[in-house]
Please model this.
Amino acid sequence: MATWIVVIISGLAIVLALFSGLRSQLTQSNEGKAMAFVGLLVLPAISVWFGFEEQMTRAESTKFCLSCHVMNDYGKSLLVDDPSYIPAHHYQNNLVPRDHACYTCHTDYAMFGTALAKMRGMRHVLVQYFGTVPKPEDIKLYEAYNNRECLHCHLGGRKFEEEPKHAKLPNMMADIKANHLSCTSSKCHDTIHDVGSLKDATFWKGNLQ
Amino acid sequence: MRISMAKALKWSSLLVVTGLAIQLLCLVYIHPLSFITFLSVGCPLVGAGVVLYLFGLLSQGSSNK
Model:
């Protein structure tokens, strides 16, 4: 939903609602009643719905996730000039959409994944303002990273399916696909954000989106 | 409890306009606080305005009988 559509509908609703409230005698006529109905019920409802859609879309943006101070280092880690950093490799090579980089990997690709991510986000805001904010390097995932999130894109991809290292052991590929062998903690792709080591890292010159 | 239509329109308008103004303000910044303000302040204000307007309509309808 484009922001300007929300602005136009909200603006129109505000004008009609003001007219209905300040000139209530106008609502004696049928036209006035229709105006009040549109200005105080129809347009506000549409406006809130579109506004909600817009806010939900924004909540998936990289800019939104990195707007809290504690996330700064995680943003920086996307620019590390080292392809062994999995998020940096994905971000810099457009393997994930840069403007939705965090959400692409950190939402559960399961039913209610988006809703669950939002609920967790609410909790993070509460901790940010009313709790004790941990050091960036102490932030951990709620549960071990599920291969499902990687396979959402990689499953069926030639590079993934035909990679000899993925077939080093019998049943290895089946174990990866069943999440019995983690992509990120099996000494294969285990350099993730690694924010504790950023002070020694060199950075790509690209910008965060 | 009954409420005059003029009063309902006035208060409903005030609530809807305030809620929508907050919604517009929340669009200025891309930040979790904007998201939360929209959900916890903007939406309830608009919702209360709409409910009050409907309540006014119902009150007017029952007093016309």
Observations:
- The interface with chain B takes residues 3, 6-7, 10-11, 13-14, 17-18, 20-22, 24-25, 27, 36, 39-41, 44-45, 47-48, 51-52, 54-55, 58-59, 61, 63-64, 67-68, 121-122, 124-125, 128 of chain A (CB under 8 Å).
- The CA atoms of residues 147 and 163 of chain A lie 16 Å apart.
